[in-house]
Q: What sequence folds into this?
């Protein structure tokens, strides 16, 4: 499948299924957590805004505010502000649903929405020069 088609499909599918998603997740860095994600659209559906939060036994673990859109060449971009990132970080779509950042961090975010409407959201990163590794993964269902 062509990445441009896949991006348009992900953007279009998320734009048609806005709302609040809730679920559970786990990972070597995070441990077990509850997740909440609010999906909204802007600019006549050309942009999807994603607000993501992970809450563990000790409280809030992670918060992201993301803007998903296509660039001028119809390639997917995910702009992320997080409580753990140094400002806004641009992730570009390397393959369908896989958004990679090389500067200033070695990380990727993987997003998918399956046919049943389950939304997955996963963070991969590396603290060293090695390849990014899975650190946190959640699957959520729309509740509102």
A:
């Amino acid at each position: 499948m062509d990445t441009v088609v896949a991006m348009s499909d992900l953007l279009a599918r998320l734009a048609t299924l806005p709302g609040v998603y809730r679920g559970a997740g786990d990972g070597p860095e995070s441990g077990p957590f509850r997740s909440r994600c609010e999906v909204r659209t802007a600019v006549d559906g050309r942009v999807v805004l994603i607000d993501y939060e992970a809450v563990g036994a000790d409280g809030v673990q992670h918060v992201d505010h993301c803007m998903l859109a296509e660039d001028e060449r119809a390639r997917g971009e995910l702009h992320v502000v997080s409580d753990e990132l140094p400002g806004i970080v641009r992730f570009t779509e390397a393959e369908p649903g896989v958004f990679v950042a090389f500067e200033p961090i070695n990380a990727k975010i993987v997003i998918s929405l399956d046919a049943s409407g389950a939304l997955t959201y996963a963070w991969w990163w590396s603290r060293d020069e090695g390849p990014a590794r899975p650190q946190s993964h959640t699957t959520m269902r729309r509740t509102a």
Remarks:
- Confidence is low (pLDDT under 50) at residues 1-7.
- The chain has one domain: 3-142.
- Residues 15 and 68 are 10 Å apart (CA to CA).
- Residues 3-142 form a domain with the Lipocalin fold (CATH 2.40.128.20).
